[in-house]
């Protein structure tokens, strides 16, 4: 497999707003988008803080015919995909009939849609359950709906690997481009802010019980007591950098390297598996540790998981040798969308020469990582490493680098 894969379009939807023009400035500014849950009454639950998408009116972003058949997460995915294709100035209709495809990642599926239909089943009977329940809950539904709406008839797929799945989906898209496709839409979307999904997350005992948003998500901090969930979507348009089809706009950067490993019998991977994924991703990109200018860390905010990640990063780069950031502290852990958001932010950071901050965390003075805290840090950037770990032992690492201007 040969050939470069470049990112030409970015579509973001999260607690900072809709679209890159809304999300990126707030990220650089370090604004906390976490707040008390409003999508349902969480007052009776021990966890009440999350990152919700503000002011999202589905009818303003997707066709009305899709409203009855889609869960909230799919509406976010469709919106982000539309933004990404528009940003890329891409016209899939101009490509060969099977020259463009879709690969997405999902973690939870359509929880909110499923809860609503189960309530109808219990209270009114099976005749009142929507026929769209047959697919609206399904992990692959985002891929299908994006493919149908934009007439993308090439390869289609879905990856389910919790947080790590977002990077894995982008890697699958890269493989398809290397095999000759012209364009892929790829990314992740998740929304788990309904009672049924909330209870499922509480059962894992990894989400924060903090009552204040500024204390809810503190990775690499001794006060860390779990992460704050978020909802959102992050979609990319990825094209062949050396393909026959013209690229209308200057790429954000290149997906230069990727690797994944799996740790057995662990909730979230230990340091050895993640370190190996980093080393393999660097080798795939033909880069040395000294070539990486910033690391976008997974940042679970569970002490033992953070300690393992810090050990892996320090083991590859040396203690405090490379800036590390966790900007998802502002919008919550977006599950499958989280690492794709980090990829997008890494590419924007390369473009603008600025590293977005990790907010609210205060590492100990002897912490092995150079965590960018408080405010954004200006720095010339040529390459970035993005890390993601999924529940069950999944580790993924991806390298992006600036393209020649």
From TrEMBL:
Pfam families assigned to the protein according to its UniProt record, in alphabetical order: ketoacyl-synt, Ketoacyl-synt_C
Ketosynthase family 3 (KS3) domain ranges (all copies): 2-402
Tagged with keyword Acyltransferase: yes
Keywords: Acyltransferase, Transferase
Keyword hit for Transferase: yes
Entry similarity comment: Belongs to the thiolase-like superfamily. Beta-ketoacyl-ACP synthases family.
Name of the molecule in the record: Ketosynthase chain-length factor
The species this protein was found in: Actinomadura sediminis
